[in-house]
Amino acid sequence: MAGFNKVVNNYDDAMQGLKNGMTIIAGGFGLCGIPEGLIAEIKRKGTRNLTVVSNNCGIDGFGLGVLLEDKQIIKMVSSYVGENALFEQQLLNGELEVELTPQGTLAEKIRAGGAGIPAFYTSTGYGTPIGEGKDVKLFNDRPYILEESITGDYAIVKAWKADAYGNCIYRHTAMNFNPLAATAANVTVVEVEEIVEIGSLSPDQIHTPGIYVDRVIKGTFEKRIERKVIQQTAPSKGTQ
């Protein structure tokens, strides 16, 4: 049983083998459900010329945004990039290649990669710059463009709970790109809030089976709020 234990005790071991020029698929949506410690370890290692596939690139100074500070990312495949001034600057200066992809298409490209499907047809993006140069076929008289799937060298994933076998449960909005990312890379590293005893997770609860996971590490999370909005209560009638 000990040979199946995937728990590592430090971040250096968690990201062992990461090299310049690799492709990383990162889970998360905005700042929700991001593997904060694994991102910090990539920054610490100084790994460069990375292609990163993620819904977005964090914000200035947090999340994947910290990897832009030393220009560790050479290409970003994302669906939304509007919260990061440094990202914008590097894009406009020609220092960062960006492949914008519709969000649903991006999710399906990752899911298909994890399922061993090399490409699929979708109507999303047809007739726009997204579809330029891509194969087009008609299905029921509607045009669809061919999108290739995505796989990575590493997937960095944030889960709520996992056991030592790597069986994972996600919580609430962290069920965004994390389960997809976990299936689509050669090496999948999961950062979790809690590591539980083997056998304590009901099979019906497990979102990512341990067969997809190579390493598990217990992390601590700041869980920063991307944009805090507080609703102002309207004054009662007769008050100033």
TrEMBL record:
SUPFAM superfamilies cross-referenced by the UniProt entry: NagB/RpiA/CoA transferase-like (SSF100950)
Keyword field contains DNA damage: no
Keyword terms of this UniProt record: Transferase
Signal peptide per UniProt: none
Keyword Transferase assigned: yes
One MF term in the entry's GO annotations: CoA-transferase activity
Family according to the record: Belongs to the 3-oxoacid CoA-transferase subunit A family.
Name of the featured protein: Dehydrocarnitine CoA transferase subunit A
Organism: Agaribacter marinus
Gene: dhcA
